[in-house]
Amino acid sequence: MTFTFAPARREQVGLLIALAGASGSGKTFSALRLARGMSPEGKIAFIDTEARRGLHYADRFQFLHADMRPPFRPERFIEGIRAAEAAGAKVVIIDSASHEYDGEGGIMDWADELAEKGVKSPGNWKEPKLAHKKMMNALLQCRASLIFCLRADEKIEIVRGENGRTLVRPLGWVPICEKRFMYEMTASFTLTPERPGIPQFDLPHKLQDQHRHMFPAGKPISEEAGRMLAEWARGADVPPTAAASRSSHAAVTDAPVSSSPPPEGGTGADFPGDQPATEVDKLLEEARQVAMSGTVQLRAFWKALDERRRKLLEPHVQTLKEAAAYADQTGGA
């Protein structure tokens, strides 16, 4: 095989955006605003797994709609996205992509079905995981931009406090999806019902430096963010305006502090929103990659960290433990 090399130039880069949050956090509306900015002419397709709830916004946005019903097997999402591309969509919204993981007929259901037929763990995960990987490979080859709405659960931990009192400690919002899904995203955000449509930069998110000014701290996701993302994907330089630059700086240094109490033994300053975002993002990404290999590897990684870096990861410890436990159960990568 002969390889031909050419100077690297960004052009027609595919975008994969994830919006995670609980009911009422503004995921669907934010996805439609973002999509309208990416495609002002309305070449938007909406794959709806939520009993046609996307049609609630039909009077406010222009888009093609498809009602997707169970079973929510990975190959059906591939089929839906390819059909949207064939219909001329430049942006495809999947609401909710969480159904591919824990919906009726999703990969968790599939693994349970195989277990009931006598396939022992982790063997019962082999076929569902392979189907999910095929879906992810297909998504990465998609020429349309994809926006995934994901449900999220707020995790808690029951701990013993002073005088033996039982305390409930919040551990943050965790998106409902296969463990590697979020790592493939161009950008991802966590939204909360308390501040619908506004990315919470003190909660799990992924945002590269070149995109940070497109999502000002404390501001709702907008059509302008979609427009700038689309221009960047086409190869244009999208410098921040003076106002956006100031907001972007605020996203790194003055991110909103969670209203939840800080981790036990810590202070509000221990949250990643109050640290240089790039350092925390890189450290968390490294920890997540280690967690994919299982609990033993995660413990060794944690032991090797110094105290300062452990404090940066403290708000995410439970999520990392769950990811590692899941990797133990399913046989890892």
Task: Tell me about this structure.
- This protein has 333 residues and is an alpha/beta fold.
- The protein folds into two domains: 16-253, Rossmann fold (3-Layer(aba) Sandwich); 271-330, no CATH class.
- Helices cover 38% and strands 15% of the residues.
- The chain has helices at residues 27-38, 74-86, 99-102, 107-116, 126-140, 209-212, 223-234, 242-253, 277-291, 295-304, 307-313, 317-330, and strands spanning 16-21, 44-48, 64-67, 91-95, 145-160, 166-175, 187-191.
- Strands 1, 2, 3, 4, 5, 6 and 7 form a seven-stranded mixed beta sheet that branches.
- The two termini are 30 Å apart.
- Mean pLDDT is 83; it is low at 242-277.
List the helices and strands and how they pair.
Elements: E1 16-21, H1 27-38, E2 44-48, E3 64-67, H2 74-86, E4 91-95, H3 99-102, H4 107-116, H5 126-140, E5 145-160, E6 166-175, E7 187-191, H6 209-212, H7 223-234, H8 242-253, H9 277-291, H10 295-304, H11 307-313, H12 317-330
Parallel strand pairs: 1-5, 1-7, 2-3, 2-4, 4-5
Antiparallel strand pairs: 5-6
Helix pairs in contact: 1-7, 2-5, 4-5, 9-12, 10-12
